[in-house]
Structure formats: C-alpha cells, structure tokens
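Q: Convert this sequence to structure tokens.
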Amino acid sequence: MKKKKVKPRIPEGEAILDDLDFTMEDYSKTARKMLKGEYNRFIKFVVNDLGVNDNSKVLEIGPGPGWIGIWMAKTNISLKIIGLEISEDMIRVANKNKESEGVQDRVSFVLGNGKDMKQFSDNSFDVVISNGNLHHWEDSIQVFNEIYRVLKKDGIFCVSDGRRDLDWRGKLIFHIFKYFGPKFMRIGWKTSIMAGYTPKEVKEMLDKSNLRDKWQLTPSFMDFSIHNKLNNKK
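A:
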C-alpha cells in the first residue's frame, strides 16, 4: 500500500485577536453553534466516558469565548471552571458570555500561557481539558508537562484537536464548509488544519513528556483526542 503523503506543518500564532474583518464577538457567535456538535461531543466524552465527579475543579487551556466551560458549569452546578487564555480579546468576550449565561460565580477566565502555569499549584485540578487548541501551542511538550504537574494524581485530562492528515471524508467536509461557513471561519479552519499535528507526531511528543505512560489517543477521520487510559486513570 502506498504511504500517504502529508504536507509539512505550518505553525499558527498562539493568540487569536480582534481583526479588521472580524471581532471575537463575531467568532463567539459562530463558535456557540458548536455546542450542538463538536463541543457537545467533547463535553459528553469528558463528563460521561472519562467521568467527572461532582465538586471537581476544572482547568480549561485555551477556552476562547468560553462556551465549553460555561456549558459544563450549567449542566453541573457543583463544578468550578477556570479558563487559562492567552488572548485578552477572547477573555473580554468570554467574560461577557459567562455573565449572560449566569455562571459568573463558578466560571473565571485568567490571562496566561499553558507552557508556564506558575499561578497554579501542583496537584491542584481534578480535570484539565483543552479543545481545538493544541496546534496553537508554542511548546507542546512543556504544556503536557504542566498538565501533568497541576493535575491531581487521580485526575482526568483530555486534549482534543484537528489533524493535518485528513482523509477523504475530512477533506469533503472541509470543501462543503468552504461554501457555507463565514469567510473568517473558513480561513481560520484552513490555517488550523495546516498547523495541526498527525496522531504519529502527537504520540512522539507525548512519549517525550511527563505524561508518557498515562495517555491514550483516540483518532477519528478529522481529529483526535488525548486522554487518560480508560478504566486506568491513576
């Protein structure tokens, strides 16, 4: 069988900021629609398959407009959510969203970078999550090391992102989206795909990190998730 050729990765900047063509408010309105699709699948996998306990303290790295953490807080009022975000423009919008959804007492967003989470103590979170953000990380191995440090020893983690090596199904979905999605989202998705990693590349990074023997990778035709080994989270 002929080996599939994958295009070289083109890194994307870390922070998404307001632009002349669109603001983070525009981004947020489109992203909110994913609560019925991608975001919902991610939340269900973390909460139901990995198993989030009541009263858990949750860290989300790169929450963007905050919809995942906000929705988790709305579905379980015992959870406390902290979003660590590098973009001040995203934090502005995320704070508006938590206020409008009435979860401001249980959700907070702080400025910071996943590769240096010095504001958080060792073993301080029950859950660490990140969705659609890995391809933005400058130093992925260091972020994985920081996840290991701040996560409790019996804690849950899940990092999900798109893959660069789309198969024909993923390419078909992308081409359909080109005709129906907002222009700024189409452009953003294309650069995100080209900045994404392949499952093989992710495995190599994880094996060099402190999470080296604690992860399981579940791929699909468009993305993948890195998470605890099911039924063996300790």
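Helices lie at 24-32, 38-51, 67-75, 88-100, 140-150, 168-180, 183-195, 199-207.
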